[in-house]
Specification:
The structure is a single chain. By secondary structure, the protein is an alpha/beta fold. The chain is built from ten helices and 17 strands. Strands 1-16-17-15-14-11-12-13 form an eight-stranded mixed beta sheet, with helices on both faces. It has a seven-stranded mixed beta sheet with strand order 4-3-2-5-6-7-8, covered by helices on one side. Strands 9-10 form a two-stranded antiparallel sheet. The N and C termini lie far apart (about 60 Å).
């Protein structure tokens, strides 16, 4: 079947989200939100599909979350056009190749606005040299069709890369082109247009900031590098090794010299700041030399843990991006005891769903 988005309902859905966010923020005396709309279709930069085998046929499927029924996916207007074109090309390339087709159960796509894409083929079988040879032929075929593609094979305890496991994105942000390395199977922002809005909103929100910036959960440096222009120095933490490596590459690619990445969790950093534990990873880094008057957090759906919330309260300015307004509100019950919300934003990262991404700027009361 061909999936169709209810694009005619997009404005109404966005209005409903805006109303819901306002209601949630009423107890905290938040200002009117800045609302950033997504493209109504072809907005998602990554997608994952199960693969269904039916006699000689082979196709992408999804499962209806409510009925659990299998849905055949020929076109996916949620994903960008590059992914849609690649979906057709992958099925055509794999369908009549017994080795590439056998026990293939999932395909993951990660794409960029700069027309680069990673395709990961997931199998319930061992992968070896034969698979690599056939995958090289498939990649050559895809390249001849104009695709700038990286192919990766995955199976239990096995990962085969024909070249490398990353692609580099180029985003226009506040008049500059930012380079971001995106690593396969690591977190990346799913909606590039909304990501640009988030970065530009964060830059504008901290335009008159003083001193240094501390960021927790920095990922590949998505926000750290864009915000570096507004601060003397940036100190950022991230626990995942692939994301830290990507962030280090991005620092060099963007020729930024005032960002320091530390590989540790937010909880570990809180312990280090409180003097509860010492970490070898902090050797050579003088935390006391940083004059961080602003802290930026973009936590997972669970929000900030209780100890980190207390640590965050010590900073005059808190910039908080949240993918879960419910846990944000839980954190705000504590944060608004010492800070006021001066800016609020709704970023429609996930159109046609209940999910909301939002941002708040909190400033300490005098």
């Amino acid at each position: 079947m061909q999936n169709v988005l209810p694009t005619e309902d997009y404005e109404n859905q966005l209005m409903e989200k805006t109303y819901r966010l306002k209601e949630m923020m009423t107890p905290f005396s938040a200002p009117e939100p800045d609302v950033f709309r997504s493209p109504a279709s072809h907005y998602r930069m990554r997608a994952e599909f199960r693969i269904w085998h039916e006699e000689n046929d082979l196709y992408h499927i999804m499962f209806d979350q409510q009925t659990k029924q299998r849905i055949r996916v020929e076109h996916f207007p949620v994903a960008n056009k590059l992914i849609n074109n690649m979906m057709q090309a992958i099925i055509a390339g794999v369908k009549n190749n017994p080795l590439l087709r056998h026990k293939l159960f999932q395909v993951d796509y990660l794409s960029t606005r700069s027309n680069k894409i990673i395709v990961s083929l997931l199998y319930h079988k061992k992968l070896g040299d034969e698979w690599r040879e056939q995958a090289i032929e498939l990649r050559t075929q895809l390249q001849s069709e104009g695709f700038d593609v990286q192919l990766i094979g995955r199976a239990s305890k096995t990962k085969i890369m024909l070249d490398h496991g990353y692609i580099d994105e180029a985003l226009p942000v506040a008049g500059k082109t930012m380079i971001y390395r995106q690593v396969e199977n690591s977190f990346t922002q799913p909606n590039a247009s909304i990501n640009i809005h988030m970065l530009e909103w964060a830059i504008e929100s901290t335009q008159n900031a003083k001193g240094d910036l501390l960021e927790l959960y920095c990922g590949n440096g998505n926000f750290s590098l864009a915000l570096a222009q507004n601060f003397e120095r940036v100190l950022a933490t991230e626990i995942a090794k692939p994301s830290v490596a990507a962030a280090q590459f991005n620092i060099k690619a963007n020729q930024i010299d005032n960002v320091q990445i530390i590989r540790m969790s937010a909880e570990e950093f809180t312990q280090a700041m409180n003097g509860e534990r010492e970490f070898n990873r902090l050797q050579g880094i003088d935390l006391k030399s940083y004059q961080c008057e602003t802290i930026f957090v973009d936590p997972p759906r669970s929000g900030l843990d209780a100890e980190t919330v207390k640590m965050v309260q010590a900073y005059p300015r808190i910039l908080y991006i949240s993918c879960n307004p419910e846990t944000l509100c839980q954190n705000l019950e504590t944060l608004t005891q010492t800070h006021n919300i001066s800016k609020l934003a709704l970023f429609d990262q996930f159109p046609y769903t209940h999910h909301m991404e939002c941002g708040v700027l909190l400033e300490k009361r005098n």
